[in-house]
Structures are given as structure tokens and as C-alpha cells.
Amino acid sequence: MLFKSQKKFQKKAVTTISVMIASCAFCWLNPAQAQTVVSQTHIAQASASNISNAELEQFVKVHAQLVAIDKQTTQQMIDVIQQEGMTIDRFNVIGNWIINSTDSKEAPTPPVSQAEMESFKKVVAKITPLQEQAEAKMKQVFATEKFEVERYKQIFEAVRTDPKLQNQVQQMLQK
């Protein structure tokens, strides 16, 4: 059995790799994927009418930097997983099994071998610092750009749900 602290790190890493790979970080063009990134329960409503052009430009600038950080980190995580001889799918299957092991006694199919579990632990140990570095970089982007995380989330949600705003942001990103 894993120690609780190991399980916590593994849960965080598995969730991160699953979300990062599945969502391509903050990609609002697919609302189903964006739901995993932005929780509506914590976001005050923002609409196109209360977002200034300057604020939207700042959002786009921050968003582009966050996406770049995410792409780099995701690739690094994928490389680590593959260097350990695992596939992304198998890594996620094992991780989800560990996360849900308190709820279910069912093992994944095929069963997890001791060698796979050791590889999984090595991957988690290597990708956890990558995730922490990415989070620090993202926080730095917000600090450098003087843009509040909560406001970013509000605008993100507005963009995700407003096709006109999506088009406006896409045009800004293409410049």
C-alpha cells in the first residue's frame, strides 16, 4: 500500500497529466474540455458587456503565455512517462485506479504488475516537480502582467460561453 503522502502526490500528478493532456490547457474551443479546467461554482459571471477591450487584450496576452507554459510542461510530462516505458493511457489507468482505490477494489485490466507500479512511482516523482514549476511560472505570469487569477477565470468563462467573444479572442490571438 502506498503511503498517504505518496498517494496525495500521485493523485495530484495523475489529475494534472489527465487534465493537461485532455484539455490542452484552457482551450475554450471545446466546452466539455474546458469544464475540467474552470469550475463554474467559483466563477462570478462575466459578460462581453463588462469586459473592456484593454482587459480582453490583457487576457489574451496572459492566456497565450499560459498555453505556452502548459504545452511545454505537457510535452515534458509525456516524455517522462514514455521514457519510463509507459503509455499515457496506461499511466492514467493506473493513476485513476490509485485515486479510486478507496472506492473500488476492482483492479484495472490488465492488472498492474509490480514493475508497472514501480515505473508509475518513478514517473510521479519526476513529473510532480515539473507541475510545481509550471504552476510557479503561471503564477509569475499573473504577477508580471498584473492580472488577477479570478478575473482571468471570469473572462475565460465568458469567452467559453459567448461565441462572439470567442471570435474576438481568436482574432486577437492570430495577430
TrEMBL record:
<protein>
    <recommendedName>
        <fullName>DUF4168 domain-containing protein</fullName>
    </recommendedName>
</protein>
<keyword id="KW-0732">Signal</keyword>
<feature type="domain" description="DUF4168">
    <location>
        <begin position="108"/>
        <end position="169"/>
    </location>
</feature>
<feature type="domain" description="DUF4168">
    <location>
        <begin position="41"/>
        <end position="96"/>
    </location>
</feature>
<dbReference type="InterPro" id="IPR025433">
    <property type="entry name" value="DUF4168"/>
</dbReference>
<feature type="signal peptide">
    <location>
        <begin position="1"/>
        <end position="34"/>
    </location>
</feature>
<dbReference type="Pfam" id="PF13767">
    <property type="entry name" value="DUF4168"/>
</dbReference>
